Amino acid sequence: MANLYVRSTDGSDADNGSTWALAKATLSGASAIDAAGDAIYVSQVHAESSGSAQTIALAGTAASPVRVICGNDGAAPPTAVDTSGVITTTGNFAISITGSAYISGLTFAAGTGASGGSASLSLNASANHFQTFENCSFRLNTSGSSQALNPTSAVASAGQSLTRWVDCSVRFGHAAHAIQINRGIFEWAGGSLLSGGTSPTTLLNLSGTSNYAGIAKISGVDLSNASSAINLVTGQTPGQVVIRNSKLPASWSGSLFTGTFSPGLRVEMHNCDSADTNYRLWVEDYAGSIKSETTIVKSGGASDGTTPLSWKMASSANAKYPLIPLESPEIVKWNETVGSAITATIEVVTDNVTLTDDDCWVEVQYLGTSGFPIGSFVSDVKADVLATAASQSSSTETWTTTGLTTPVKQKLSVTFTPQEKGFLHAVVHLAKASTTVYVDPLLTIT
Amino acid sequence: MPIVSSTYTEGPTQIDGRRNVKERHVDDAGDVYEYEWLGSQDPTPVLAARADVLNAQLAERAAALAQVAGTMLPLTKLGFRELFTSTERAGIDAFRAGLESNPALNAAQKAAIRTGFADFDVAQNIVRPFMPQVLAMLDLFLSLGLLTQGRRTAIEEAGNG
Predict the structure, then answer these.
(1) Considering the entire predicted model, what is its pTM?
(2) Angle of helix B132-143 relative to helix B107-122, nearest 10 degrees?
(3) Whether B41 and A253 lie within 8 Å, measured CB to CB
(4) At what angle do helices B149-160 and B132-143 cross, to 10 degrees?
(5) Can you give the pLDDT at residue A154?
(6) In chain A, whose CA is at the least distance from the CA of B13?
(7) Complex confidence, ipTM
């Protein structure tokens, strides 16, 4: 496993890259001769700029990835990482990176000065690879509208890929730009949308050209530089997107999801806000939406420790029993009881809708087999699909019902006997179409 | 398809002073566009801004649709031949077979007709609306008596319809 060196200020792609003095001039030049397991060190003064498409075809494999590290060229190999290396294309030229690799401290900027063409940024652009970028920045500098930042492969014939961004930033040059999830898995932990450039209309686009499912998990990202109207996700392909613990633009009036839902597409936003809240929830699903609510709440019910809250589950016209219920996030609680029956209860309230046991029910997963950690399931849905529906039990709990004309209070309840200690996982199902139910997300055990 | 109606409804004020605002925009075709957000700001300017954005996008889409209006798939060569009756096709085929020995045509006319048939042979399909060289061939068949004026018009209309 060799060390290769890249420095634009005095390097040459005709050199062999074996020392700083013989450094390659471009990262693509190094990628032309690298082998699996190699380390490619990019100088902190590196600033390559190419008027041609840059294909950085790294030789790394999942078993033996390549490391591309921006480091201080005062030592060989460097002993200190840096974050100032830059790889730019000028004009309508794309940057594409393939192969399994860990890449640190580099800025990739495509299409500087361009106004159209194909200056996209495509990461993990070949099949079955892992790429992790740490302290990197991705910039679509072109003002052309058709470009995208593809963190996972956009190639229909390619296999799945996993791309992680750790403390990475992005910037776009046109409102139509987006992070396009074509297929595979994309994780973004920490980082930001940079100021400058143009805020995209939508941050994530699942309308990949290959129409395969994509998964995106975004945590701890500062989006406050986006426009207040930015939409977070669009697309029509199946997929799962979770955005959590992230900062939104001030006075955000955008949507969590725009577009047409396909079965299997669900977008969840947990604890993201521009204000100092710690409870905000927003879920968009084919079967409806779920939002946190702090006015219509149960007395003594769920809270974040300070603020009482409930979940407003609003099913769409697509919801139906038994196939397509709107499912709440899991409500999790530790259980210490073994060998004795316990009852788990969730309180709900509607505005003049008496829910039956095929309209709305709770399902609890518990450890019901001694000796093995195998889940058992119990719910208060009607006995089978042919059974006659019956109303769920009424409740006398106290709710603040501001805005509800005729509050109907009910409870969802199941009794079961755990055989091992462990977590209980409760999920509320709402299958009655076009119906709003306020759920107290506090699992009460008696 | 401009937006003709923009309204909103508000949910109860939340504990931090914000409330859920649901925007409803309707265009002149009756299509509905809904957006919901949590905030404390005045919804009126947000509605106006949203309507502006939607109008721009709707206008862009309408312009694109107008640009491609009337687009027709090209005909296959067999599809084009089937615009003619079997008698007409037989007459044209016979004319083509005897082209080189046809005493009614001079060399220049033969060359032009020969080229027209050769172009048909190598063409992948027949673009619609018919290109000028196709219409010229129809006129040639009319002048040679292989088509009547009525049939020539009918073939052009059927092909371009």
Answers:
(1) 0.81
(2) 130
(3) yes
(4) 160
(5) 64
(6) A295
(7) 0.70
